[in-house]
Amino acid sequence: MNWIVFESWILLLMLEGTMCFRGFGNLHEWMRRQRVQPDSSRASLSAEELCHAADLACVFYFKQVLCLQRSAATALLLKRHGYDAKLTIGAQVLPFKSHAWVEIGEKVMNDKPYMPEIYMVLERI
Q: What pLDDT was estimated at residue 41?
């Protein structure tokens, strides 16, 4: 499990660099190109365990991690371990707010299960 937390931490760092130096458009394109990778460890690591590892990596990160970075890293981690995870971006009109979370199928993995009811889904990547 420690290795998975470290892998998640590295993903957070990579995504921060991408967002800071290349912008959201580049992050969006990169996430869109990612594919689910078959993984032999899938049987030993559940999607919930991988999400927990990503959450722990956020605790050990050197600055506050916001929802887009956290959810993108979690989605990438899940895809690397054989799960068809989708980074979901939603918005609410009044008051205007946006939010990002991860879904596998119709199930919200790294947030409260009622996120799709609060936010209008703009895109699933």
A: 56
* pTM metric for this prediction: 0.92
pLDDT at residue 1 tops 80: no
How do the domains of the chain map onto residue ranges?
2-124
- How far apart, in whole angstroms, are the C-alpha atoms of residue 28 and residue 30? 5
Q: Which two tokens stand for residue 83?
A: 């799960």
Backbone phi, psi, residue 45, to 5°: -125, 115
Per-residue pLDDT tens digits for 64-73:
999 999 999 9
| Longest pairwise C-alpha distance within the chain | 45
Q: What is the DSSP string of 4-17?
A: HHHHHHHHHHHHHH
The interaxial angle of helices 67-80 and 47-60, nearest 10 deg, is: 140
- Lowest mean pLDDT segment, chosen from 28-42, 60-74, 82-96: 28-42
Q: How many CB atoms lie within 10 A of CB 66?
A: 13
Q: How far apart are CA 39 and CA 49, in angstroms?
A: 15
